[in-house]
Amino acid sequence: MKSITHLNHRYGGPPNTVLVIVTALLMIFWSLGCDDDSSASGGTDTASDTGTGADTGTGADTGTGVDTGTGVDTGTGVDTGTGVDTGTGADTGTGVEPNANYIIADHTAVDAYVNIPQQYLDIVKSWLVDAAGESHSEAYRTGIDVLAAQNSTYAATSFDGSIPAATTDALRLGRHASVGEEDFWTNAAAIDTIKSVIVAQHTAGNPIHVLFQAWCWDMTRTEGPANSGSNDYDLEFGVHWFGSSAGGPDGDHIWGLDSSDVAITGNSVSLQTYLNVVDQYNAFATTNGIITKSIFSTGPVDGQSASGEQGYQRFLKHEAIRAYVKQGTGRVLFDYADILAYNDAGDRHMEVWASPIKTVEFHFPAIHPDNSGNDTGHIGNAGALRIAKAMWWLLARMAGWDGQ
After folding, report:
1. How far is 32 from 27, CA to CA, in rounded Å?
2. Confidence class of residue 303 from pLDDT cuts 50, 70 and 90?
3. Where exactly are the structural domains of the chain?
4. DSSP class of 354
5. CA–CA distance, 287 with 160 (Å, rounded to integer)
6. In the chain, % of residues over pLDDT 70
7. DSSP state, residue 350
């Protein structure tokens, strides 16, 4: 519960109040006989998952005209989005929470993809998905190819670079270019470039339906602090911050959750920068009548010290992304990290790390050995296949399927 308290404190709301609300909701669900997401697949953990939190920011971007972007949007506006099925009803173990105003594809979507009705499969087969990333993005492409080869119901075409022409016969998923943090969210020029790609595809009549950053090891690299950063422990969470912010205004350095971490990192770039930029892309598309939906994603749980302090601080960043998505309306998350932490039997792999300045051990998920390997994008083909199945589920939900 230590991480729950800390993230709630960071993102707003008295921790005791949040815990009371969560406890009350759990009592209601138990009385109705509903399962939570972790029990839906019948799997087990090797340790307890301890972190959650909620961002309480509000507001809406009401810009008009074509936004050309003049910098990194640091606001906390709520993207209301369009065309996103928000889902209602009881938790059925398919990744949908009761009365949710958001969509999250997590490990429960891996099995639930087989329930997609034909009408939504047909819609998704007309879509273009830009999983803009670096080496890890390969697994997204491999996964959909492997699934399509196994079952033609999930016909798909992967691409790397040249965007294929519009079609209604197969989902098109790939990347328009190799895209790192310096090309997607850390600076104004990158943001303008992504907006230009969105506009160009829209103008050509071959719009990008779904766009997201396919994270590499950007959350865990050891670039060191900027000159003004102390590189001390974050006393709230008991960790040092890690990461890479190539292209950022302060250079390529470690980064934390938000502006309160600047004293430690010396870096004006933080996770909140990424969150704001994804919202900015959605506001831009909505303002200009473009159907492109930018979604959030979590990052790798392999390599780059998946265990230990680096792994734990990466988990905190993943939890902050999840909290932010749940706080807003119309936000969508592909939870890559959660999907790979579980195997096909529903068992989750956990790591443990003891902070030198805390009196507790922190348990957190990392890639399950069944999903590990070097087949594609730093993981095994089994993991890539799980990603593909969850992606089909997510796209069908975004197309209007209620998940039932």
Report:
1. 9
2. confident
3. 2-398
4. E
5. 29
6. 75
7. E
